[in-house]
Design brief:
The complex is a heterodimer. In chain A, strands 1-2 form a two-stranded antiparallel ribbon. Chain A is globular and about 105 Å long. By secondary structure, chain A is mostly helical. Chain A has 18 helices and two strands. In chain A, helix 5 packs antiparallel against helix 6 and helix 6 runs antiparallel to helix 7. Chain A has a domain of about 210 residues: MetI-like fold (Orthogonal Bundle). By secondary structure, chain B is an alpha/beta fold. Helix content of chain B is about 40%, strand content about 25%. In chain B, the strands form two sheets. A six-stranded mixed sheet of chain B has the order 6-7-8-3-9-10, sandwiched between helices. In chain B, strands 2-1-4-5 form a four-stranded antiparallel sheet, with helices on one face. In chain B, strand 7, helix 6 and strand 8 form a beta-alpha-beta unit. The chains are: A mainly alpha, B alpha/beta. At the A-B interface, helix 15 and helix 16 of A face helix 2, strand 6 and helix 3 of B.
Chain lengths: ~475, ~260
């Protein structure tokens, strides 16, 4: 019989892998030329990429930036001897830039949406990079400098440039000294942006905000006695009473005593990317919390809450957005008291929020379903109540799992803002393009506006996607 | 495993009182007429074949499972559908799970301080001191700032025990705490549990670690088909089982 006994007396040290198993050659062989089929596909792909670039590049690069009409553009291209390959007429973008960005917003007031846009980044900073002092301060500082340059380029008067610069400098300092305090800027931002964009008396905005303040106050006072949900309902009633009965009297008086006003801008004048951002950002930031509540409602043990959530989600996921947008034009007015003058943009925003939150709810539900039961049980066993368990244990994990889905929804939502053209709003793709084309100077231009708008949408959506990947990496703690 | 632990005092005070308790899953009668009194300071081991309802029983004690009839009184509080009572009982009763159920998105220290801060409203600094105390006790203070995913199974289970202890519970429930562990890691968890028993903690353990039962339990309960079939002091239980079912079970698990 063979001797099977063996004893190791010296343990082996780890060694480096053989050199043929690393480096560029290995990467090429594994990824591009791993077999005959893959090699052929790689070569075919290279050929098609090459021909695509060869076809499109000259047209893009021959572009003309300085011209006042399409005819002039074509003349310049013909003169340069590139008539055969042709060339893009980017001059249109240059001339009509302001319209693509602001729509028909009054030129003298351009500084307002621009400043609101800059403030948006400062407000986003603590959400995107919570507590990171350097990132927050950098964001505020860079955006501040860009804002001043942009305002100067727009020919804004010195007073407003100085004011904006001072505000941005103050916020940068705040971000440096107390990055966590920036959250207050985030909370105040919706009201500030609303006032900057639409203008009117500051007291109207303050009154509307006071309604939310009243809601929060009533909620925090009553929730200990009647529970979170009932308290929210009472708070909502109080806020609605304030808005509909009390607010106008008080703000009217205040507006007489302290008239602080910006020129009122009608919603019809909003357009271009300003409109896309107003609708997109508002809907994105409102649909996430509403979607989370709907997802929780769908899992609730309370029959009424569950049924309402399920019907809401299923209904709005089952109906095309365009249908809802059209009905927003008419239906919301039926549900509101007669002669309520309900702003078209506001109506559209509400519809988009409703629509997006139904999608977000389902994405979040997917995240909730992926959590092991043990997480709920451990939270329960430690004595955490429902809302504590959701906020501290369940949601942080469920949302982390749902990040790719949530961001996909956001990206889709942002691109869907171009659909508002169908209810007569001036979105950058349809609305503004139509205005541009109705000008005899640019009649017949075709690709350039699509490419321009497409590039800007791509930059925004791609940034969202990259940010979500950063967030996933940052939150990765499971070490799988 | 110290013999002395057997002689630890058991007070007359009642910690858990279960009377005529029944539970069904749909049509299936999982727990049948459970009557049981646990004195403060008792260490009880519950064993039995799988599906006998032993896990369900201890999960009823902190209402992770709802019972349908009978009465469960924990520390003088009856478990009903009243959420206030449930939360009160849960904050007094610690539980350790088979699969640890640590919170993977929080560090070890945060796992241990979360409930004291939010449920007990203890200041963060104080909660962290308590947490470090118990992490030292389960011999892993150096892991405090790592995430659960970076720890071995045995370490994770010891963290889970420390997390429960941070709530300063009066009763500890263990639901098969060593069943998901590699053999080499079982001992480190059992040692922690033995230490806890020696300090006089009231403990209910669902486990198949008969060595542990012999070392620290002052009562072994054998369950089958949702009923308590036999209970006795460990020595009597192992050396002189009365019921045929118990004899069969013991021969199966001690047979080799």
């Amino acid at each position: 019989m063979a001797d099977i006994s063996f004893v190791r007396h010296q343990m082996l040290d780890p060694q480096a892998p053989p050199t043929s198993q690393s480096g560029v050659v290995k990467w090429l062989r594994e990824n591009l030329f791993s077999g005959p089929l893959n090699s052929v596909l790689t070569i075919l792909a290279l050929i098609s990429i090459y021909s695509l670039i060869k076809g499109a590049m000259p047209w893009l690069l021959n572009g003309v930036w300085n011209a006042n009409s399409l005819t002039e553009c074509r003349q310049i291209i013909a003169d340069s001897g590139a008539a055969e390959v042709g060339g893009a007429c980017w001059a249109m973008v240059r001339v009509r830039w302001n319209q693509f960005i602001y729509g028909l917003y009054p030129v003298a007031e351009y500084w307002r949406p621009t400043t609101a846009f800059a403030l948006m980044f400062v407000a986003l900073a603590p959400v995107l990079y919570y507590g990171l002092q350097r990132a927050n301060a950098l964001m505020a500082g860079i955006v501040g400098v860009l804002l001043v340059l942009a305002l100067w380029g727009l020919g804004t008067d010195g007073y407003h440039i100085a004011l904006s610069a001072a505000v941005m400098a103050g916020l940068t300092a705040l971000a440096w000294v107390a990055p966590k305090k920036l959250v207050w800027v985030t909370l105040a931002f919706p009201a500030v942006a609303y006032w900057l964009l639409w203008g009117g008396s500051v007291w109207g905005t303050v009154g509307a905000v006071a309604g939310f303040g009243l809601f929060a106050l009533v909620w925090s006072l009553t929730q200990r006695h009647v529970g979170v949900v009932v308290a929210a309902a009472i708070g909502l009633i109080a806020a609605v009473l304030w808005w509909s009965l009390v607010q106008s009297h008080i703000t009217g008086v205040l507006a007489q005593w302290f008239p602080i006003e910006l020129r009122y801008v009608r919603s019809d004048d909003f357009g271009g990317f300003l409109l896309a951002f107003v609708i997109g950002i508002t809907a994105i930031s409102a649909s996430l919390p509403i979607g989370i509540l709907l997802a929780l409602g769908r899992q609730s043990n309370m029959l009424l809450v569950k049924t309402l959530s399920v019907s809401f989600i299923e209904f709005f996921r089952g109906v095309p957005l365009i249908t809802v947008l059209f009905s927003a034009n008419f239906m919301l007015l039926y549900f509101l008291p007669p002669r309520t003058n309900f702003d078209l943009i506001l109506r559209v925003i509400i519809v988009v929020i409703i629509f997006a939150s139904a999608y977000i709810a389902e994405v979040v539900r997917g995240g909730l379903a992926a959590l092991p039961r043990g997480q709920y049980e451990a939270a329960d066993a430690l004595g955490l109540d429902y809302w504590q368990a959701q906020r501290l244990i369940i949601m942080p994990q469920a949302l982390k799992i749902s990040i790719p889905g949530i961001v996909s929804s956001f990206i889709g939502l942002f691109k869907d803002t171009t659909l508002v053209a169908l209810v007569g709003l001036m979105d950058p793709l349809q609305g503004v393009r139509k205005i541009v084309l109705s000008d005899t100077a640019w009649r017949g231009i075709y690709w350039e506006p699509f490419i321009f708008v497409g590039v800007i949408f791509f930059v925004v959506c791609f940034s969202m996607s990259r940010y979500s990947m950063y967030l996933e990496r940052k939150l990765k703690t499971d070490h799988r | 495993m110290a013999e002395a632990s057997l002689k630890m005092a058991v007070s007359d005070e009642v910690a858990i009182q279960i009377t005529g308790m029944n539970k069904w899953y749909g049509q299936f009668h999982v727990l049948r007429d459970i009557n049981m009194t646990v004195q403060r300071g008792e260490r009880i081991v519950i064993c039995g074949p799988s599906g006998s309802g032993k896990s369900t029983l201890i999960r009823c004690i902190n209402r992770l499972e709802e019972h349908q009839s009978g009465q469960i009184i924990v520390d003088g509080t009856e478990l009903t559908s009243d959420l206030k009572n449930i939360d009160k009982v849960r904050s007094e009763v610690g539980m350790v799970f088979q699969h640890f159920n640590l919170f993977p998105h929080l560090t070890i220290l945060e796992n241990c301080t979360l409930a004291p801060i939010w449920v007990r409203k203890i200041p963060k600094k104080e909660a962290e001191e308590t947490a470090m105390h118990f992490l030292t006790k389960v011999k892993i203070p150096e892991q405090a700032h790592k995430y659960p995913g970076q720890l071995s199974g045995g370490q994770q289970q010891r963290v889970a025990i420390a997390r429960s202890l941070c709530m300063k519970p009066r009763i500890m429930l263990f639901d098969e705490p060593t069943s998901a562990l590699d053999p080499e890691m079982i001992k480190e968890v059992l040692d922690t549990m033995i230490e806890l028993a020696q300090e006089g903690m009231t403990m209910l353990c669902v486990t198949h670690e008969m060595g542990f039962a012999q070392a620290v339990a002052n009562r072994v309960i054998f369950m089958d088909k949702g009923q308590i079939v036999e209970q006795n002091e460990p020595k009597e239980f192992f050396n002189n089982p009365q019921s045929e079912r118990t004899k069969l079970f013991l021969s199966q698990i001690l047979g080799h």
